[in-house]
């Protein structure tokens, strides 16, 4: 990596951290029911929402009520997306006359979008009508993100309230989060993206004549136009068998891309996601989309600090997240920049120069290069976003290890909007527990004693994702149905399966590729994994919120373990990394690590 | 001072022998089930035992020798954990046996009527019930816990406290309780029994120290949950390795899948066996350490809560100050020489045998060289302190050699009594005396006014003497994050002065039982944990309300019932040691958990390359310790894992040292020692064991 490479990473981080405070304090005001600038326009809409749906915004819900509301609401969202897909052939806004989606794929996609995973077993432009994209997937992009933030806010209330029964009102948190945070941010970002050339239209796909006849489909692929086996983007061919025309997929993309990035959804409008030139045309659009991935998760840390009355608490968590993020960027980007020793052995120039990005450019867009591809890969897996601007399957083993491991850490390094921070807070509870014992006191975090009940719930939150990932991977490798989809047998095939389960089991949604996952086996099982890892984590988190809210607040004294110090941030990092490492080291050893050692062996 | 009733040395051969027997006795599934982490090891041991038998018959997946070695060491792991628990229990059991020796069946003289002189019938002590009244005469053993309702006697309590000096027990007041098993040395007592058979203090103590159904403390439960969660994660990581390995062998086309024996070995190495094996020993040892300090806790929960205490209520007298006040200065009114005042004060105090009175004589001698005079040659008559006059003093006849000198009437006493005394004789109360009196009071001392005839001479300052070293203790407590509050019956002025001198954070002056209770409730409502000591019946409500309540053994039965700990030495400062012991218990658990988890890193480096040596030889790059063979690597890790439990038993029993240096620093130190240490130690240990195994040609 050279100077400009470092500079790009630095600018990205500075922009991210700089925006955390203003956006964070804005969001804190929204959730604390304080007035924000947008009240003038939206307060009426907000009231109308409550009146139409018969919600009493003053009602304070106990955690069980809150959890029920969240689950039922998400279930209806899931059903809506499922039905839209199943009946899209008879519904309007389907200019390409796409058929109804198969039941297993529709189930997988419905779960995927409701659970903020956005794993995509399908190719967007060849499967989903405009209506399904907008009313189903687009709407869920907002609602799943708002759900995550609502649960986080409820957990924060658990810390701030004392001797209280309620943890807030789910409907109010949902409405305010969507109306005052997600919609305005998406609107601004969508406009900016349209300015950069991202498409936004209801027109049908366009067939255009090629300026230059292409010799093979590989060229078309490298342009990001014809990636899917389903074959859209395939054009007419001339007599010699060479394509002369090409179909260009279009659609209302910009509006969906904005929220897919901001809401850590990651489900692309087009199959190749943000590698597609109509989804992510320029380096500037790339920067904005990449920034949008981590923007809300980072800013929520500041909101958290503000809401618990000590911004240092938020900064400590943000620092812990950022440190792990930077460390893993420093694994992936240099690993990619070093390139493939097997190619070096063949005399291929992989060095960095004015003419080329150098390094391992397989599966990467030339307009983004190594640094912006690697940075995106780490950001999208750190957050549970899962959108891609390069193909992770083609990364070097170490370059691909970092994104995979970030998901396996439980999506707490930034993580999903809301869900990342509530996951991290659960890790903080565990860290505080061990640290508290080590200083000879019953552990307490932010004035709340951490006792058996909280540990039980925290244990569930930490247990479920590894169980799903390891259990699912084991299942896939034992059954023929699972092994049938592996195209690269060996360590890399193993990595692909492990990656798929890591992604679904932690609600990330990015795919390593290489694994043909749009088959009933993976659609159903990965769908179930996404379902469990989202909601079985949400429920115990809300239970912790309820339990904490009912407790007294212990005043801070000199014997209290400070949780805003660098030492605590380090302890938090160690806790996250130890749990992640100890759980997945054997599996990683058989996948990426063996691959890496074998690759060096070629050298 | 205090003779420890039993040997508590770790190396006591008898205790060790008992512990080894206990280790085997605990191998029943029911006992193992109580400790989920060790239960997994237990099941693993059974599984590998079966696999070894299979290997002996030629059907195993590993050579029989390797299988046997792993199996044996897994069983050792289980036994070592049992042993740790047995050692800790053994020490407590020895103490319980000693206590039980005090609990012989004592013949009791049950009185027909609740008064001395009534008829009595001889019954067995064990048949006494609450409310029965017994007579205990010199030489008799006290048949059960109770309150003295009549009589005064000296009692030998060494059976309970190990303290050989007898103590006085009398009806009324704060020294009215007697404990079953102690012996009356002189005089007699009439005692109302306060407990039913099997509920006595001794019974509770014995039950506490040896109960097998020991209740887990709240933090222990929370920690167990965390350990179980980690165990499940590792179980999944290990179990899933089998299909991963089979798939890898299929696609790599070389090697053979990982064997179940190796998987079990890996699992046992990864799950937190170090803390799992020592967890219950730490809890038992915590209560045992309290007992060594002569404190009986009625539950482990109370010991643990002691570590969490935020506020400490301390009685001024006896805890912060010495029980007695001492004269520290003479302040004459205008026109009176200080030496004259000192002389009068000395004369008035010559026959005063109270410590305060003695201290006046001593001060007069130190300051003015006034020798103690022979009171008889002076022909003086002494006026003793009486509740009516609230003064004491001396009447001296006139000197026969100096005719005309009148006889002298010297009095000393509290300001208002002397004032009344002077004014009734027609004397005048000088205005400046009030200033003098107030000045003394403001310094936290007690003013004593001296008058001769109808003329006030001045004031003696009686100073409360703050115990040496107590200020440093309070500084320590502050560093621990504990707020100290002094409780005193003194007025605010005096209380404030002493509080400042002793360095307590706050004080409650003119304390009544209601005020104490209210103070505790207020702190609890703010989320703080309150500890206090007490001995009197009027302390009982506050003791019952406090989270950690230490009753003095010398105190009343009501106080002991209300508290959750009893200090056999009746030393109020011991609360500080109790807090430290509570903290040590938590810290030891936290430190060993950290150590246990940190150990896993090295074990992975040992086992992963070994387990996949045949499938992916490239993984040998991870064999950073350069362990000789796959078999030696796995065996070394398992042996290390078992031996570390034995190695850490002393630490678990003694507890890690607590230093009051503030939370951040403490965490930093312990992370360094047990976290970083836990990372490094197993690398060295496993390598050393591997070298040893190779040197002995065992692998």
TrEMBL record, chain A:
The keyword Transmembrane applies. It is found in: Cell membrane. Its main location: membrane. It comes from the Bacteria. InterPro entries: KdpA (IPR004623). Keywords: Cell membrane, Ion transport, Membrane, Potassium, Potassium transport, Transmembrane, Transmembrane helix, Transport. It is a multi-pass membrane protein. The chain crosses the membrane at residues 6-24, 66-84, 134-156, 177-199, 287-308, 315-335, 412-437, 458-479, 524-546, 567-590. Residues 221-245 are annotated as: Disordered. Pfam families: KdpA. Belongs to the KdpA family. Part of the high-affinity ATP-driven potassium transport (or Kdp) system, which catalyzes the hydrolysis of ATP coupled with the electrogenic transport of potassium into the cytoplasm. This subunit binds the extracellular potassium ions and delivers the ions to the membrane domain of KdpB through an intramembrane tunnel. The system is composed of three essential subunits: KdpA, KdpB and KdpC. PANTHER family: POTASSIUM-TRANSPORTING ATPASE A CHAIN (PTHR30607), POTASSIUM-TRANSPORTING ATPASE POTASSIUM-BINDING SUBUNIT (PTHR30607:SF2). This is Potassium-transporting ATPase potassium-binding subunit.
TrEMBL record, chain B:
Its EC number is 7.2.2.6. The keyword Cell division does not apply. Keywords: ATP-binding, Cell membrane, Ion transport, Magnesium, Membrane, Metal-binding, Nucleotide-binding, Phosphoprotein, Potassium, Potassium transport, Translocase, Transmembrane, Transmembrane helix, Transport. Residues 118-210 form the P-type ATPase A domain. The chain crosses the membrane at residues 36-53, 65-84, 221-246, 258-284, 601-619, 631-651, 671-696. The active site is at 315 (4-aspartylphosphate intermediate). Part of the high-affinity ATP-driven potassium transport (or Kdp) system, which catalyzes the hydrolysis of ATP coupled with the electrogenic transport of potassium into the cytoplasm. This subunit is responsible for energy coupling to the transport system and for the release of the potassium ions to the cytoplasm. The system is composed of three essential subunits: KdpA, KdpB and KdpC. This is Potassium-transporting ATPase ATP-binding subunit. It comes from Methylomonas subterranea. The gene is kdpB.
């Amino acid at each position: 990596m050279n100077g400009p490479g470092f500079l790009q990473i630095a600018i990205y981080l500075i922009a991210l951290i700089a925006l955390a405070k203003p956006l964070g304090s804005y969001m804190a005001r929204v959730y604390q029911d304080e007035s924000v600038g947008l009240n003038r326009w939206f307060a009426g809409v907000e009231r109308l929402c409550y009146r139409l749906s018969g919600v009493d915004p003053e009602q304070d819900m106990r955690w069980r009520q809150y959890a029920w509301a969240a689950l039922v609401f998400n279930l209806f969202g899931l059903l809506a997306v499922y039905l839209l897909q199943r009946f899209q052939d008879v519904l309007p806004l389907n200019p390409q006359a796409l058929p109804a989606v198969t039941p297993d794929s529709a189930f997988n996609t419905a779960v995927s979008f409701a659970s903020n995973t956005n794993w995509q077993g399908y190719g967007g432009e060849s499967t989903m009508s405009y209506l399904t994209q907008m009313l189903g997937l687009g709407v869920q992009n907002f609602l799943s993100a708002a759900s995550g933030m609502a649960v986080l806010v409820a957990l924060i209330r658990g810390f701030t309230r004392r001797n209280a029964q309620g943890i807030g009102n789910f409907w109010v948190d949902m409405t305010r989060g969507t109306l005052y945070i997600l919609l305005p941010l998406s609107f601004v970002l969508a406009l900016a993206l349209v300015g950069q050339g991202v498409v936004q239209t209801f027109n049908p796909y366009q067939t255009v004549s090629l300026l230059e006849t292409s010799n093979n489909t590989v060229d078309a692929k490298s342009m990001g136009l014809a990636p899917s086996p389903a074959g859209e983007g395939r054009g007419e061919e001339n007599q010699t068998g060479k394509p002369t025309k090409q179909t260009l997929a279009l659609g209302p993309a910009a509006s969906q891309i904005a929220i897919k990035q901001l809401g850590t959804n990651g489900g692309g409008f087009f199959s190749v996601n943000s590698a597609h030139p109509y989804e992510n045309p320029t380096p500037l659009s790339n920067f904005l989309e990449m920034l949008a991935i981590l923007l809300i998760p980072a800013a929520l840390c500041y909101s958290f600090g503000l809401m618990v009355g000590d911004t240092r608490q938020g900064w400590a968590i943000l620092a812990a997240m950022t440190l792990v993020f930077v460390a893993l960027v420093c694994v992936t980007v240099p690993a990619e920049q070093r390139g493939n020793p097997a190619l070096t052995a063949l005399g291929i120039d992989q060095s960095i120069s004015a003419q080329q990005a150098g390094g391992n450019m397989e599966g990467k867009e030339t307009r983004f290069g190594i640094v912006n591809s690697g940075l995106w890969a780490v950001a999208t897996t750190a957050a549970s976003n899962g959108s891609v601007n390069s193909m992770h399957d083609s990364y070097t083993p170490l370059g691909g290890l970092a994104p995979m491991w970030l998901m396996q850490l439980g999506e707490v390094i930034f993580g999903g909007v809301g869900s990342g921070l509530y996951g991290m807070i659960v890790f903080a509870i565990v860290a505080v527990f061990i640290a508290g014992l080590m200083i000879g006191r019953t552990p307490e975090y932010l004035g709340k004693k951490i006792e058996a009940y909280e540990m039980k719930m925290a244990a569930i939150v930490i247990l479920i994702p590894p169980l799903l990932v390891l259990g699912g991977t084991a299942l896939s490798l034992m059954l023929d149905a699972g092994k049938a989809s592996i195209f690269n047998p060996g360590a890399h095939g193993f990595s692909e399966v492990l990656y798929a389960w890591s992604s679904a089991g932690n609600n990330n949604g990015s795919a390593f590729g290489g694994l043909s996952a749009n088959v009933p086996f993976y659609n159903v099982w990965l769908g179930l994994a996404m379902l469990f890892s989202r909601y079985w984590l949400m429920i115990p988190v809300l239970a912790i919120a309820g339990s904490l809210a009912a407790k007294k607040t212990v005043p801070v004294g000199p014997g209290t373990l400070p949780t805003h110090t660098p030492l605590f941030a380090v302890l938090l990092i160690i806790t996250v990394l130890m749990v992640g490492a100890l759980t997945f080291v054997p599996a990683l050893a058989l996948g990426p690590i063996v691959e890496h050692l074998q690759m060096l062996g070629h050298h | 001072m205090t003779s420890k009733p039993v040997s508590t040395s770790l190396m006591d051969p008898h205790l060790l022998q008992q512990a080894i027997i206990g280790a085997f006795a605990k191998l029943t599934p029911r006992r193992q089930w109580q400790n989920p982490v060790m239960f997994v090891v237990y099941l693993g041991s059974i599984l590998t035992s079966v696999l070894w038998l299979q290997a002996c018959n030629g059907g195993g997946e590993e050579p029989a020798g390797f299988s046997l070695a792993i199996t044996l060491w897994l069983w050792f792991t289980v036994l070592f954990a049992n042993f740790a628990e047995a050692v800790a229990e053994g020490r407590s059991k020895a103490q319980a046996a000693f206590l039980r020796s005090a609990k012989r069946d004592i013949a009791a003289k049950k009185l027909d009527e609740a008064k001395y002189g009534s008829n009595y019938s001889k019954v067995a002590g064990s048949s006494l019930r609450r409310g029965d009244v017994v007579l205990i005469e010199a030489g008799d053993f006290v048949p059960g816990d109770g309150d003295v309702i009549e009589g005064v006697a000296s009692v030998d309590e060494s059976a309970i406290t190990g303290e050989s000096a007898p103590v006085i027990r009398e009806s009324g007041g704060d020294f009215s309780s007697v404990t079953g098993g102690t012996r009356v040395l002189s005089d007699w007592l009439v005692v109302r029994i306060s407990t039913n058979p099997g509920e006595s203090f001794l019974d509770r103590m014995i039950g506490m120290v040896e109960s097998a159904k020991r209740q887990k403390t709240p933090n222990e439960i929370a920690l167990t949950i965390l350990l179980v969660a980690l165990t499940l994660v590792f179980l999944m990581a290990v179990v899933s390795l089998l299909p991963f390995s089979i798939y890898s062998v299929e696609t790599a086309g070389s090697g053979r899948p990982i064997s179940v024996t190796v998987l079990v070995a890996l699992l046992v190495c990864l799950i937190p066996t170090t803390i799992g094996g020592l967890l219950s020993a730490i809890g038992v040892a915590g209560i045992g350490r309290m007992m060594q300090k002569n404190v009986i806790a009625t539950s482990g929960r109370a010991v643990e809560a002691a570590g969490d205490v935020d506020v400490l209520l301390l009685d001024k007298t006896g805890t912060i100050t010495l029980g007695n006040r001492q004269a520290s200065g003479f302040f004459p009114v205008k026109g009176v020489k200080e030496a004259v005042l000192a002389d009068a004060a000395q004369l008035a105090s010559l026959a005063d045998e109270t410590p305060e009175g003695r201290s006046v004589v001593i001060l007069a001698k130190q300051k003015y060289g006034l020798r103690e005079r022979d009171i008889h040659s002076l022909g003086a008559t002494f006026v003793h302190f009486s509740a009516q006059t609230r003064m004491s003093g001396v009447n001296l006849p006139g000197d026969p050699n100096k005719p005309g000198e009148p006889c002298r009437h010297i009095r000393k006493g509290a300001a208002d009594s002397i004032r009344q005394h002077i004014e009734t004789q027609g004397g005048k109360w000088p205005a400046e005396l009030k200033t003098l009196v107030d000045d003394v009071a403001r310094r936290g001392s007690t003013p004593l006014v001296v008058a001769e005839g109808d003329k006030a001479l001045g004031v003696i300052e009686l100073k409360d003497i703050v115990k040496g070293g107590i200020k440093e203790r309070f500084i320590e407590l502050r560093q621990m994050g504990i707020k100290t509050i002094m409780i005193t019956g003194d007025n605010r002025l005096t209380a404030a002065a002493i509080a400042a001198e002793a360095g307590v954070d706050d004080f409650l002056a003119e304390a009544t039982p209601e005020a104490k209770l209210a103070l505790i409730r207020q702190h609890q409502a703010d989320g703080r944990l309150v500890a206090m000591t007490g001995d009197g019946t009027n302390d009982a409500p506050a003791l019952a309300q406090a989270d950690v309540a230490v009753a003095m053994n010398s105190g009343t039965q009501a106080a002991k019932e209300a508290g959750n700990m009893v200090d056999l030495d009746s030393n109020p400062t011991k609360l500080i040691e109790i807090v430290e012991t509570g903290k040590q218990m938590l810290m030891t658990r936290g430190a060993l958990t950290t150590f246990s988890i940190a150990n896993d890193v090295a074990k992975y480096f040992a086992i992963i390359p070994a387990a996949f040596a045949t499938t992916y030889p490239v993984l040998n790059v991870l064999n950073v310790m350069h362990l000789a063979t796959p078999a030696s690597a796995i065996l070394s890790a398992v042996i290390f894992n078992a031996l570390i439990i034995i190695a850490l038993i002393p630490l678990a029993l003694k507890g890690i040292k607590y230093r009051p240096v503030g939370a951040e620093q403490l965490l930093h130190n312990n992370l360094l020692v047990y976290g970083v240490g836990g990372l490094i130690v197993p690398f060295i240990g496993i390598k050393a064991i591997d070298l040893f195994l190779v040197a002995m040609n065992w692998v």
